[in-house]
Design brief:
7 helices, 268 residues, 4 strands, two-stranded antiparallel sheet, single chain, mainly alpha
């Protein structure tokens, strides 16, 4: 059974900040961390929904309608390499895993670039309010195009520049290593094994409990094994990413508080 948890954004994020996005006053605008979080959580939810729909379709398909579908679509290649039903089903599971993992990591990469800019805006506004710091340099830093940056480098940058903690850092890096294994070897563990997969896992309620709990989960593979995950393990990728998004936005909120920025009440 798959368990759903309340959206973690309900925990702490709901602040609005009046931030200047440039050197002049007319460019001032209100930034809602909650709105930003909801946008990314919504995108993650849509990826999850599409994955669940795919699972539902896989449950309904059998060998007969697999063959019928293949024969009914004109133009499909039919070669000796055509998968029989059982093999196609197993390969499809790995294909869904590879692609959903790539989509989740891609979303997190875009999110981290927004986090970098948000942190820059916080520091810029704090310096402007206090009359200290080189505003031109800070503004240029915000607008600088960083290009593709791997997760480890981005995490290091946020920690060293803004002292921003990344609570599920190890989990995200293990997902990136898993994704690299899919890209380099089709998901087969080679001599240089990736680090163990670390996830935040939703554990069903225990005896006497009414709500599920989030626990740490670890999975490793041996040399020559092909990566596969259960549905619950696959779902934990979305749980981990959701907690990551919430944790990072909470970190931006704490940075804003530490620099003395005063949150504004939301507009009615």
């Amino acid at each position: 059974m798959l368990w759903a948890l309340p959206c973690p954004l309900d925990l702490a994020i709901g602040f609005f900040y009046r931030l200047d996005v440039g050197m002049s006053e007319p460019s001032s605008q209100t930034v809602s961390l909650n709105d930003i979080g909801q946008r990314y959580i919504g995108a993650l939810q849509h990826l999850c929904d599409m994955m669940v729909l795919t699972w539902a379709g896989a449950r309904a398909v059998n060998e007969e309608n697999y063959d019928q579908a293949f024969q009914s679509v004109c133009g499909l290649p039919s070669t000796p390499f055509h998968f029989p039903f059982a093999m196609a089903k197993a390969e499809a599971e790995r294909w869904w895993l590879k692609n959903s993992l790539g989509e989740v990591l891609g979303l997190c990469q875009v999110f981290l670039e927004d986090i970098r800019k948000l942190c820059g805006l916080v520091v810029f506004n704090a310096a402007k309010n206090s009359g200290s710091g080189d505003l031109a340099t800070l503004a240029a830093e915000i607008n600088a195009s960083s290009g593709p940056v791997d997760l480890a480098s981005r995490f290091s940058q946020l920690k060293s520049r803004y002292n921003l903690a990344v609570p599920p850092e190890a989990e995200l890096l293990s997902l990136a290593a898993l994704n690299l294994c899919f890209l380099q070897s089709g998901g087969v563990i080679q001599k240089k094994s990736p680090p163990p997969l670390l996830l935040k896992f939703v554990q069903p309620p225990g005896q006497g409990e009414t709500a599920p709990r989030i626990v740490d989960y670890k999975r490793a593979w041996k040399n020559g094994e092909r990566i596969s995950l259960s549905r619950e393990e696959h779902a934990a990728i979305f749980t981990t990413a959701s907690l990551f998004l919430s944790s990072m936005l909470t970190g931006v909120q704490e940075l804003a508080k530490a620099t003395g920025l005063v949150p504004e009440p939301p507009k009615p």
